[in-house]
Amino acid sequence: MAEADITDVTESDVEVREGVDGQSEKGDDLEERLVAEGEIAGDYLEELLDLLDFDGDIDLDVEGNRAIVSIDGGEDLSKLVGRKGEVLDALQELTRLAVHQKTGERSRLMLDIANWRRRRREELSALGEKVAHRVLETGDREELAPMTPFERKIVHDAVAGVEGVHSESEGVEPSRRVVVLKG
């Protein structure tokens, strides 16, 4: 009879992530839940596009611990982004509510329409790096225009990539802004 090699598997041996409700979820369970969220969101958004008579292709993805839903295609989609992404933010919240209604769990899904968020992320990353280098050279603190939490996070991440400077958020919503400082 062959001898079996038995190994105890502990929770530290398995990838475990924090669920949105504070409970731990194994990687496969989390991915399944996020895929399901994306599908619910996709169905909701497809109905909405049909109702508004807009054309668009819906793409579902999972990045990290959040479902990503993208709508691309028709020329009318810019109307669903709105000024400074305000309509997009509102649609994202409505979509999260639709997912919550079906699942009973809070959703952190991200909605992007016509690649607006992707382009905005690129712009803000470039801005954060540019300002960080300027502050590094001059030593003067710089305040940026008020931004949403999503936008501020992108700038903070970009500034963190430049040694010798750091960033902080100051102010109260909706006038909360990023400040870049030397040191």
In short:
The chain has 183 residues and is an alpha+beta fold. It is 43% helix and 22% strand. The chain has helices spanning 27-52, 86-103, 116-138, 149-160, and strands spanning 16-18, 24-26, 56-63, 66-73, 110-113, 142-143, 165-170, 177-182.
Strands, count: 8
Overall average pLDDT: 86
Could you say which overall geometry the principal axes of the C-alpha atoms support?
elongated
Question: Helix share of residues?
Answer: 40-55%
Lateral strand order in the biggest sheet? 3-4-5
Q: Major β-sheet, in short? A: 3 strands, mixed
Kindly estimate the percentage of residues that lie in beta strands according to DSSP: 15-25%
Structure description:
By secondary structure, the protein is of the alpha+beta class. 43% of the residues lie in helices and 22% in strands. The chain has four helices and eight strands. It has a three-stranded mixed sheet with strand order 3-4-5, sandwiched between helices. Strands 6-8-7 form a three-stranded antiparallel sheet. Strands 1-2 form a two-stranded antiparallel ribbon. A hairpin with a 5-residue loop joins strand 1 and strand 2. Helix 1 crosses helix 2 and helix 3 crosses helix 4. The N terminus is likely disordered.
